[in-house]
Amino acid sequence: MAKLAAKDKFFDLSDYGRAPATLLANSLKNTSFTPVRVTYLFGVCGLVASYCIFKEYYIAAAFFLILKSILDAADGELARVKQTPSYTGRYLDSVFDILLNFIILCTIGYVAQTPAYLIFLAFAAVQLQGTLYNYYYVILRNKSEGGDTTSKVFEYKSPRALPGENQKTVDFLFQAYTFCYGIFDKAIHLMDKTAHKAKVFPSWFMTLVSMYGLGFQLLIIAIMLPLGLISYIIPFFIWYSVLIFVLIGIRRFVL
Q1: Helix 87-111, helix 230-240: angle, nearest 10
Q2: Of the candidates 107, 97, 52, the residue with the CA atom closest to the CA atom of residue 214
Q3: pTM value?
Q4: For 59-110, how does the pLDDT look when each residue is reduced to its tens digit (9 = 90+)?
Q5: Which H helix or E strand runs over 23?
Q6: Contact (CB, 8 A) for 192 and 255
Q7: CA–CA distance, 165 with 31 (Å, rounded to integer)
Q8: Both ends of the chain: CA-CA distance in Å?
Q9: Residue 50 φ/ψ region, left for φ over 0, alpha for ψ in the -120 to 50 degree band, beta for the rest
Q10: Half-sphere exposure at residue 96, Cβ-oriented, CA atoms within 13 angstroms
């Protein structure tokens, strides 16, 4: 199952890892390697990237951040080529993402000697940015003919486990997901309550929104680190959030 029908596809700035992720997924298609194992691998890459930042090995950190993005795409691709979608993988992926974002930003803030309140503000900013992208993207996927519907626009209760996964595991991960993302989901929904009623999001608009995708956020960090701009990363992501209101304004009043 593709994420989107051909007519709904757009140039996704955050999805630069899709091609190598697809190659990796196809190479693992006929093996016993599972999508969840790929998810664990990208978790390890995120931790290694954080360690490299702490030790000020910025080129290595950039490499592992990009590798993390590729593996982050590869777990979903592997689930699609094996035709084994799962809520376990969907929620585990998201929980790993938010935990790694927090660890990476805390490490950057520690090395750059940034005040703690700015680190937490940047973390909230990054999560709101990513939530806006996911909100619009999931709406588009759910409306797209034949699109991937593993992710839901509104997730109020734990879904029924799909074949091959355990209901208790799904329930636990759903609770973890809700705890981690609930406040950000509610905030974005309050800012644009009627987005799910929109008939279509133009490709140019989704490309604009994709600058808030996690892959693009990590790419920005991966570029700034080797350039010696680590002290500017936390302030950048705080101010970068101003565009949230611009994008929501375009969606509500222009489209």
Answers
A1: 130
A2: 97
A3: 0.93
A4: 999 999 999 999 999 998 999 898 888 899 999 999 999 999 999 999 999 9
A5: helix 18-28
A6: no
A7: 19
A8: 28
A9: alpha
A10: 23
Residues whose CB falls within 8 Å of the CB of residue 164, separated by 6 or more in sequence, listed in order: 84, 86
Contact between residue 125 and residue 241 where contact means Cβ atoms under 8 Å apart:
yes
Instruction: Say how many residues make up the chain.
Output: 255
Structure tokens at 94: 């998201």
Positive or negative torsion for Cα 91, 92, 97, 103: positive
pLDDT one-digit tens code per residue, 159-210: 888 888 899 999 999 999 999 999 999 999 999 999 988 877 899 999 999 9
CATH code of 15-253, in short, is 1.20.120.1760
CA 34 to chain centre: 20
- Helix or strand holding residue 58 (H, E): helix 58-81
The Cβ of residue 90 has, within 10 Å, a number of other Cβ atoms equal to 26
The CA-atom distances, in angstroms, between 106 and each of 11, 132, 178, 234 are 31, 22, 22, 10
